[in-house]
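Re-running the complex after MR caught last week's input typo. The corrected sequence lines follow. Everything else is unchanged.
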Amino acid sequence: MATIKIPAAGKDIRSGTVIRWLKKPGDPIKKGEILAELDTESGVLHVESPIAGNLKTILLDTGKTGPVSAPLAEIADELSSAPPLPLSPAPASPPPPRSPAAAAGKVTPILMPKAGQSMEEGVLVKWHVAPGDVIKVGQAIFEIETDKATMDVEAIDSGRLARIIAPAGKTVPVQQPVAFIAESDADVDAFLASGGSPAATAATASAPGSASSATSPSATIASARATTAEGRVKASPAARKIAADRGIDIATVAAGTGPGGRILSTDLPLTAPAPAASGSSRRRMSQMRKAIARNLLQSKQTIPHFYVRLTVDAAPMVAFYQAAKAKYPCSINDVIVLASSRLVQEFPAFRSRLEGDEFVESPTANIGIAVGMDDGLVVPVLVGANRLSLQQIAAETKRLAASAKAGKIEGMGLGTFTITNLGMFGTEEFAAIINPPEAAILAVGAARESVIVKDGAMRAGKVMTMTLSSDHRIIDGMLAAKFLARMKELLESPDKLAP
Amino acid sequence: MNQHVNIAVLGAGPGGYVAALKAAQLGATVAIIEKGHLGGTCLNVGCIPSKALLASAELLHHIRHAAEMGIDLPAAAVINWPKIQSRKDKVILGLRNGVKGLLNARKVSIHTGHATLDGHGKISIAAHDGSKQSITADKVILAVGSVPSRIPGWPTDTNFVCTSDEALHWQSLPAKLLIVGGGVIGCEFACMMQAFGVDVTIVEMLPRILPNVDAQVAALLHKILAARGIKIFTGVKIESLAIADSIARATLADGQVIPADRVLVATGRRPNTAEIGLNSINLAADRGFIRVNDNMESKVPGVYCIGDANGRCLLAHAASAHGIAAVENALGHNHPFRAPIPNCIYTFPEVATVGLSAEEAQTQGLPIAVGNFPLSFLGKAMAANDTEGFVKVIRHRETGALLGVHMIGHNVTECIASAGALLHQNAKVSDIAEIVFAHPTISESFKESAEDSLSMGLHLPPKKVLRAVAEV
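Corrected-run output:
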């Protein structure tokens, strides 16, 4: 969304009065199209649109006056006329050297990440950035909703966000571009006009906590590479000779800076790309990995874990989620957090921890929520979840996750019970390690289609398997089984969860 | 026996005598007291004598340009100054008698002498022969006017240092005249005296001449006057003035010395309210001015003040209009006065304005569009061989209302009335574009300028439509 403003069209012009709008809300707008006629101190001023998109809201009505730079209208960025990009997964081997997208002439598509094996498409919920913004690696740039969860997507390339082609609300298949990073809009136009290079896909976004970095090939494309009509790469004779001397395939040189993208000797890398490493590589452990290693090793070695597993009929829960979702944003995981918070309140052992020879019982349900990161995971804690509604839980969880990704982990050490959910990746079931010093952890699998046998009859339905890992020093098997049974009861009759 | 009247008017200038006539017309008994001549400043030492002299000067100006009009004169024009003066005096006399006749015809009792308030509704009159008289009145209208300011500490010899009061009756022309103040009076005298062959210098303390007039208009007049050889200093103060060997020497703040054989002080006017017994009715003046509400009534009920003395607008026609409003309110008709007052300057070219200037409108934060039509595009101006000038129209962009009109050029003081009328009627500028103006006239330029403010003028090249990319 861009707010366009009254331009400073001359030194005598201090303000403009709208004579008429040539566009109305909902109209598609081309860049350079006249949007409105303004009456000014120096006569009539035609105001052109600086961007393409859809006129969303008129902020200065006909007959009204605003000073220079006063908001005129809001335009939702959208290039409806942009041709769909021919896309195919990029051959990832060998990856071309990654270069900053901001380099002149380069266009880097930002792709819908594949945040899970089962994910085929995602709904772009909201853009956090607007065209023209300079985005940085790691910056949350948009939010997507998959069939499993809602999550923020971070940039994995930096540069100027030139154009958004998937506006909020649009469903985009995975690995399809949603926006482009480029220095100038003309570069995007040129890139789109050229149909993009077939090998030119680049994932410039990652869904944190997903396996996206492993599943989405990542490459920066160089659109400016010039080829002749015969497909021969344009390069100077000197560049060809030096490339041959250095053992560089001239076709792999990213971009030429000569006229028409011709490759010059100065565009060549100094050495040929190193061959793919044959042996193993070595890198230092990050602080986060060290913490994970320390905590979970201690947990697995000192806490007597035992596991109780149960499969629930997921259909009522999904229906409940969908009904709620029509009213406010939330996820299936939020429903499980809701159910857990009520149960933890019901079962004091699940809000207890062992300190020496004493049990310390928390008065409230403090639910940890595992948030996956690029290199590890963190568990912010939703303190007092038993007092929150589903809507509040959803909002709070989202805030905690965003905060955790920004480096601030809230409620650390206050949790007694954690929920970890790999359902969005299609994981059917798994057993988690307790996050010490908590009493238990609930591992949630995917809500998946399955055969349900009930009363001797089979039917197709949706099931979800949950595995509860408990600390036997605090919780016995029977208690864990009762807890899960109650969980099943709640999730299969979720109306009991309604306030 | 004391005379009692419904309305007593102090001062018989254009405010007072019109108020008296109006009161009489409405059936009131009226007394008017004047210490000088009937007609006040306007008729005796203001508008009328200056216009009479300017008319001679302007004619001379045209004679000098007669050859351009195809009129060859056998010899150069010769100025007969005493005759110019006596013609002016005849005009004054005629008008004075006219005022007297009008007052008599309406049975207004005219008293000559100095009037002072002597308590509520009581006025003492000291006649010039020393006799005293007292009258009582239901309502009192103070129309005491103003006198030209003099500069404290400067020589008082009126053979050298004058105000407009003396200058309008000079028996001889100076060779070198220094005019202190570039306002309306300064500019009119400069224009007049230059035409009569006087070497004129204007010194204005403020950054420009005509500081209260539209800046573009003032700048054009400055250019025209300077081109005629009038030396104009602006933004500079006269530090001192001394007379030695029959020569006045003014020293400017920058050290320059300007010698002159006469100096005209035209720095403004001050209200004539000091000796009229305001104390007796507990009416306090504010810097000499008697402040009034829109009904022209002062803080003391039943006491009205009109014209220069109330400080609202020091112009004869404002005083007359105030006078009518004051009388109507005094006699129980409700008539708050809010009409726009046009302002005319009788230089050649003339200047006439009414309403807000572009600067004033912008200071008030109003969204305006400005139209401008140059007289050089106008048939009548070309025919009259007088094409310098323009007409500027200020339009409110949201309401479309006419906000102000600013004219400089041939005969524009005769054109401003239509602008004032439309402004008074809250006309929209688009209405003006629909009115038919006679052709060829100078007035047409007002319509053209109004159309230009709407970017729809036909007698100007099409206004370029600006185009700009919206900011994001």
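None of the earlier attempt is carried over here. The first strand of chain B starts at residue 3 and ends at 10. The domain at 161-267 of chain B is CATH 3.50.50.60 (FAD/NAD(P)-binding domain).
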